[in-house]
Amino acid sequence: MAPLAHSALYDSIGVGYAAARREDPRWRAAILDALGASSPVLNVGAGAGSYEPDDRFVVALDPSSEMLSQRPEGAAPCVLGVAEHLPAADGAFGAAMGVLTVHHWPDWRRGLAELRRVAERQVLLATDTERLAQFWLARDYAPELAAYERRQTTAAEVAAELGTEDVRVMWMPHDFTDAVYPAFWRRPEAFLEQGLWRHSSALAKLEPEVRRRAMTRLAADLEDGTWHARNAELMERADFDAGFRLVVSRRDS
């Protein structure tokens, strides 16, 4: 996806994004732990500012003006830009972070090289795309979603490119607050709401007919108990590995 296409996507699905995509405190704690005491921090693909540290100097970068416009009052200063061309000097930051952004970069390897150039530490939330492709929404209701996930840059590829073996599982509790779509792994009724499909890049890219078909089939399965019979094991779990991974690297690793 070209930078302008990425901007256009989030200028569209980003309307109202901050209200729906509220950061989860447990993921926030994990990301801050990975950042350690590094300062200053560059947040690439920063959007509305979820998971940014608030105890040190941060610069936010994103290609979408709609996303940046939703940053709260008092948030870190922000600039329009893309990962492949970071407007920063070599070693200008103690850490560069990015939350579910690498798969949107047209040249993700160049983007990672740029993060290594400008920051000593890199902390990136990415995905095990095969686990996402096997999530019940993709498996049973929208196989097009599985195909989309399998085309994305994986956490393993990000780690290999950065030369790190520090890849941490980001468990998703049943009451997760950030409305990335697998967050509702134990709350299937949420997928009957149109709004949820508008604020996820993966779901928003599905054709309207695919979304309507998936919602219709899910509604029927919830009505007759098929979904609960098929996913009974999930209802006993407190948390779930949906495939999210935190990749942590240092420039000299």
Task: Describe what this molecule looks like in 3D.
The protein has helices at residues 3-13, 17-20, 25-35, 65-68, 108-118, 129-133, 136-140, 143-150, 155-162, 194-198, 201-204, 208-224, 226-230; strands spanning 41-44, 58-62, 78-80, 93-99, 119-127, 167-169, 172-173, 239-240, 244-250. The chain is an alpha/beta fold and 253 residues long. The protein has one domain (3-250): Vaccinia Virus protein VP39 (Rossmann fold, 3-Layer(aba) Sandwich). 42% of the residues are buried. The two termini are 29 Å apart. The strands form 2 sheets. A 7-stranded mixed beta sheet has the order 3-2-1-4-5-9-6, sandwiched between helices. A two-stranded antiparallel ribbon has the order 7-8. The chain is built from 13 helices and 9 strands.
Keywords:
two-stranded antiparallel sheet, 253 residues, disordered N terminus, alpha/beta, 9 strands, 7-stranded mixed beta sheet, Rossmann fold
Show the helix and strand layout:
Layout (H helix, E strand, L loop, with lengths): L2 H11 L3 H4 L4 H11 L5 E4 L13 E5 L2 H4 L9 E3 L12 E7 L8 H11 E9 L1 H5 L2 H5 L2 H8 L4 H8 L4 E3 L2 E2 L20 H5 L2 H4 L3 H17 L1 H5 L8 E2 L3 E7 L3
Parallel strand pairs: 1-2, 1-4, 2-3, 4-5
Antiparallel strand pairs: 5-9, 6-9, 7-8
How many separate helices? 13
Identify the quaternary structure here: single chain
Strand proportion, as a percent range, falls in 15-25%
Q: Sheet with the most strands?
A: 7 strands, mixed
In helices, the fraction of residues equals 25-40%
CATH superfamily: Vaccinia Virus protein VP39
Number of strands: 9
Question: What is the fold-level CATH name, i.e. the topology?
Answer: Rossmann fold
What is the name of the CATH architecture?
3-Layer(aba) Sandwich
Provide the gyration radius in Å: 18 Å
Q: How many domains in all?
A: 1
Counting helices, strands and paired strands, the structural category is alpha/beta
- CATH class category: Alpha Beta
> Which word captures the global form?
elongated
